Amino acid sequence: MTRMNMIQAINSAMDVAMERDPDVMVMGEDVGYFGGVFRATAGLQKKYGKTRCFDAPINECGIIGVAVGMAAYGLRPVPEIQFADYIYPGMDQLVSEAARLRYRSGGEFTCPITVRSPFGGGIFGGQTHSQSPEGIFTHVSGLKTVIPSNPYDAKGLLIAAIEDPDPVLFFEPKRIYNGPFDGHYDRPVSPWSKHGSSEVPEGHYTVPLGKAAIVRAGEAVTLLCYGTMVHVALGVVEEAGVDAEVIDLRTLVPLDIDTIVASVEKTGRCLIVHEATRTSGFGAELSAQVQERCFHHLEAPIERVTGWDTPYPHSLEWAYFPGPVRIGEALKRVMKD
């Protein structure tokens, strides 16, 4: 076991995957010699050479399109989209090609690509470096969507994604790349916030896709969240002294609905927190699924705390994020009856 932050854990995952399987290849803007804008691919080109870790033009459509072709040929490409905000030019390749290749070929071809991309705000990146587009892709049948919240999960989930036979979108919450951000009023509490790192195995292991984690057991209310919001939520419930069960979804698609239902049936209350905008955000899907399955167990309306329905507000991003005030108010509403 070694202490790693999320960046180091992600780097280790790609290193392990590339060492075990010569078909694993890393590609993207600045991922080679420079090691990535966040240093997530540092050292991989030097260790594995320019044919297995290489730079690509500033052409997201081309990056993902080439990766789809490589996957159909039998390779396991891991393309990086430098910021999730730039994934839209490659969306047609993801939706029309990667997600459909297995089905349109009758199983003759698969598309084992893992598209990594930093997402979310918290680093003062402005409107074009801070978006949370995960909800858009959860609508696409054939794509899996994964979002880790800590170094251990990040490495295990990424290795599992690379080894998966179908396309996976792996969104990395950059606000906690080096540990929970502590420069503002809403510093979260978490098991690894003190050092910004956690114990992570050096070698190969996987965290299964489609399995949520109960990061805090409780009896009074179920709180569903993922990515950065896991740490914010933990901090709020600990400070408020609420007996909340906090569930880190880890994988949005496939969704571990069984864990969610079991928790809500036990607590009778549900609060959903995510950073993305409210309208058509993934919280709406969560709310619908909980209501459909747990209606007779609910003792209060389901609550959502999300980002605002606005273009990303650079100068007001810390007001945009779900924080202690808004989450605390929602907890009071869902617990009042």
Give an overview in words.
The chain contains 12 helices and 14 strands. By secondary structure, the protein is an alpha/beta fold. The chain folds into 2 domains: 2-200, Thiamin diphosphate (ThDP)-binding fold, Pyr/PP domains (Rossmann fold), CATH 3.40.50.970; 213-335, Rossmann fold. The strands form 4 sheets. It has a 5-stranded mixed sheet, with helices on both faces. A 4-stranded mixed sheet has the order 5-7-6-12. Helix 7 links the parallel strand 6 and strand 7 (168-173). Helix 3 (60-73) packs parallel to helix 4. The longest helix is centred in the first third of the chain and has 15 residues, at 6-20. The protein is globular, with a radius of gyration of 19 Å. The relative contact order is 0.12.
Draw up the topology in text:
Layout: E1 2-4, H1 6-20, E2 24-28, H2 44-48, E3 53-55, H3 60-73, E4 76-80, H4 91-98, H5 101-104, E5 114-119, H6 134-138, E6 144-146, H7 151-163, E7 168-173, E8 198-200, E9 213-216, E10 221-225, H8 228-240, E11 244-248, E12 251-253, H9 257-267, E13 270-277, H10 282-294, E14 303-307, H11 317-320, H12 324-335
Parallel strand pairs: 2-3, 2-4, 5-7, 6-7, 10-11, 10-13, 13-14
Antiparallel strand pairs: 1-8, 6-12, 9-11
Instruction: Quickly count the domains.
Output: 2
State the fourth-level CATH superfamily of the largest domain: Thiamin diphosphate (ThDP)-binding fold, Pyr/PP domains
Q: How much strand content do the residues show?
A: 15-25%
Strand order of the largest sheet: 9-11-10-13-14
Shape label: globular
What is the helix content? 25-40%
Helix/strand order: EHEHEHEHHEHEHEEEEHEEHEHEHH
CATH topology (fold) name of the largest domain:
Rossmann fold
| E-strand count | 14
Mean pLDDT, to the nearest integer, reads 93
Return the CATH architecture of the largest domain: 3-Layer(aba) Sandwich
Please tell me how large the radius of gyration is.
19 Å
- SS-based class: alpha/beta
Question: What does the oligomeric state look like here?
Answer: single chain
Q: How would you sum up the major sheet? A: 5 strands, mixed
Helical run tally: 12
